[in-house]
Amino acid sequence: MKSLVKEPVARIVAGKPICLQDTHVNDSFWLPRILVNRTRTLVIEFELLEKTGRLTAFNLNGKTHQFWDSDVAKWMEATAYSLAQYPDPALEQKLDQTIGRMSNAQTEDGYLNSFYQTRTLLKRWSNLRDMHELYCAGHLIEAAVAYYEQCGKRAFLDVMCRYTDMICATFGHADGQRRGVPGHPEIELALVRLYRATGEQRYLALAQYFINDRGVEPNIFVDEAVAREEANAAAFDLSNIQAHIPLKEQSEAVGHSVRACYLYTGMAGVAVETHDESLWAVCKRIWENLTRKRMYITGGIGSTQHKEQFTIDYDLPNENAYAETCAAISLVFFARQMLLIELNREYADIMERALYNGVLSGVSLDGEKFFYANRLAVYPALIASKTNGDRFAAFRQEWFDCACCPPNIARLLADIGEYVASISDDIIALHLYIAGSYDAVTCGHAVSLQIETDYPWDETVLVRVSSGTTTEFTLALRLPGWCRSPRIKVNGVDTDLSAITSSGYAYLRQQWADGDVIAMTLPMPVEQMEAHPSVRDDAGRIALQRGPLVYCLEECDNGADLSDVTISRSAPLCIERTDLLGGIVAITGTAFRRDLTHWSDMLYRPVRDTVVRKQFSFTAVPYCLWNNREEGEMRVWLQRE
Hints:
There is one protein chain. The protein is α+β, with helices and mostly antiparallel strands. It folds into three domains: 16-419, Glycosyltransferase (Alpha/alpha barrel), CATH 1.50.10; 423-521, Maltose phosphorylase, domain 3 (Sandwich); 527-640, no CATH class. It contains 17 helices and 23 strands. It has helices spanning 31-51, 68-85, 89-105, 114-118, 133-151, 155-170, 187-198, 201-212, 220-227, 257-273, 277-293, 325-341, 345-359, 380-386, 405-414, 497-500, 555-558; strands at residues 16-17, 23-25, 377-378, 421-424, 427-430, 436-442, 445-453, 460-467, 471-478, 487-490, 493-494, 501-502, 505-512, 517-521, 526-529, 541-546, 549-554, 566-567, 573-578, 584-594, 613-622, 634-635, 638-640. The strands form three sheets. Strands 3, 15, 16, 17, 18, 19, 20, 21, 22 and 23 form a ten-stranded mixed beta sheet that branches.
């Protein structure tokens, strides 16, 4: 496939994350999650992949499903990350056996898809819109790259390079090729990763082709549907798969939210690798629409269960929120790719918001139960009466028929160390404040940064520099957007942040020596947050936030009828370190609710001059930790007086 790489645009500069093997998380908030993910989540997910037939599907003699390969691939990727930091011979053997199954199943021409190989190869590539072939291939590619980069094992990478070479030969505009793009985007970002791992230009060119041919007339998805003699072939909503118009003409986050952010991540990757300024401009336009008008305060995206998609600007319902766990994960991917292109706090802030709220809510503290949808208000009886399959349940489940979310969150948790810092030229940038050590090479010298903090519970962050020699480089520290008055001291001396801050990062450049210490203070008062007036479901309501964490009220702490709870705008709000949920900072204060004893059996009544209300002490807990105790009501947005 011909490369369409343009001349470089100087202002688009890519950074790269610090390698996972060079990160050593030792954090009171994240390390327990990482260990539970390794010892429980990966174990039970393998058992369920086996029990449900997803693993044996590659034997090509049993049942299968069009997206099962992706479920297995995400578990494989998560396992590769885990093995990179926590060697486990038994787990490694399971991964290698799975790779062996896939290698044995691969056809002579390189094709690898359990669904079509079990049924009929004659129909492969006949329904790119619905059948997830390229989507599954993308996840398999990501797993292969992860295993190669993290553990140095190449067998699976060779399998996937053969498959990708077959895809490269199949799709394009050259003689003998066919037009085609994935109905479910994902392979685009995977191809960029494969290109970076191998240096093979054809993989980047294929990603570029998939981006540039999407939505172009004549539309491939319409032509495919006509060829299948599908009734009303032209009536399919192409905006749901971001293929209604060419990508470079798009300016809003539309359609299926997970597909969208996977696509935008791949688009940003192609933009930076091909130095395509016009494509980068599209990424920024869509980013602004998504984060300013179509994102929940938790970092959740995709507001409706209908087609799992975005709707319109400011449509962010609470009880019917969809906010799929995979969607928040895909937003994290998009944010990080944007951040590696442009060192701007806005991207890191959204990455952090999604990670600490919309992603972590997707898995229980014991690592054994999961959310598919992440609502911002739950009333169990109402939800139960409307449940449409187990993935829409009010409380976390052990598994789903559509099991995309559990292994997806497992791979992100296993790889969290790579999200902390990045390197670009002579700059080491810290994006997340997760305790641990992070090793890098800058200006030809090895440097280790030791982060000491109890973030997000505590507002202090220490960064210690370790280096065998004095080294001049720039240390860029994110000043979170939620923090109004950050302070930094270098070796005990106050720093004038106004002179060194750009795009939300403080740039500290000096000759760094072994033992230098940067002390950050990030004040975390409890904030009463309000939504844009056009967010109709939140009008007149407030949400509680402290630092990066959004809080909620649960019935087990505060009783029922949480929708009637009112907090005064001037009410004192306190923080309290508690033993709840493994040891958290809770928010406490005084709130009010109407006294039901004065209602008798009435459903309605005239408004009275005096409203009888009960005062009570409330406790709010981080949203990401709700539904780890008793089942009951939950609410994020509360009435304000």
